[in-house]
Amino acid sequence: MKIARLLAAVALLVTAMGAHAQEPAAYPSRAVTIVVPFSAGGATDLSARMIATLLSRQLGQPFVVENRAGAGGMIGMGAVARAQADGYTLGWGGNSPMSVTPHLTRSPPYDPRTAFAPVSLAAISSWTLTSRPDLAAKDFEGLVKLAKASPGKVSIASSGNGSAPHLLAEMLKQSAGIDLLHVPYKGEIDGVNAQLGRQVDLMFTSTSAATPQLKAGKLKGYAVTTPKRESALPDYPTMAELGKPELTFEIFFGLVAPAGTPKAVVDRLAAAMKTAVADANYRDTMAKAGVSATGSSPEEFAALLKRHNERWLDVIKRNNISIE
């Protein structure tokens, strides 16, 4: 009897050890890479680096930011889409590579609607319709009148063909019934400098880039594209307030994983992101940059991505816009 009991106990121990050996290691058990699909510098990169530090403190492993710029963000996000779905390669998704650029090419390296597992938003900002400081129009209504009086003469810059500012410019033309001259530049800073140098009239500028110029009086502003007024620019109306709700679009940054990443990993990251986004220093730093620290659940982030993809794809198709 004693021998039988002993054998049974040993069997239970072996079974328990085997089950334990099959359990996955606690996540994370090693360093995690966050791919930022843009060059270092700017609000997108800053937010990723601050969040990486906060995640490292919470989860006990290094979260390392890796910048992989190029092709409107598709190089970096393409690497994330192809990465092993284990939570150790993540992406810092934003508007262009997550809802715009892949729809502008016939053979994109990934489908932003299916290639990723959304984890959490980290920040929301807006585009601000800005102009060179000496443009005659004092407000949005005056701007529309000016453009209608000189069809094709008022110019609007963008950060390149097919960029979000370009698509917003096309939407503005349709919404207001005006004809604007599109002038594409290599990047946003080039368009801002062109406005400062009075070489171009208008641009949809990211609020983070526009805020210091507007406060210094070096640019003129007309409206922001967020649903509610921007805390950094509270005196500027929203496009919805001006009767143009169709021009409501956020700039967003957020954490995504490759599609197929285990739900337990996504949930652990989402819980850590909730705490990170609530960090007082992070929120204050983002506010000073003209960005609102904004978290979300994976489901809420997925819904935002769906909405952005549907709207931008519609604009691209209706205007027959392509970068090829």
From TrEMBL:
InterPro entries: BUG, Bug_dom1. It holds the Pfam family TctC. Keywords: Signal. It comes from the Bacteria. CDD domains: PBP2_Bug_TTT. Residues 1-21 form the signal peptide. PANTHER family: BLR1237 PROTEIN, TRICARBOXYLATE-BINDING PROTEIN. Belongs to the UPF0065 (bug) family. This is Tripartite tricarboxylate transporter substrate binding protein. It comes from Xenophilus arseniciresistens.
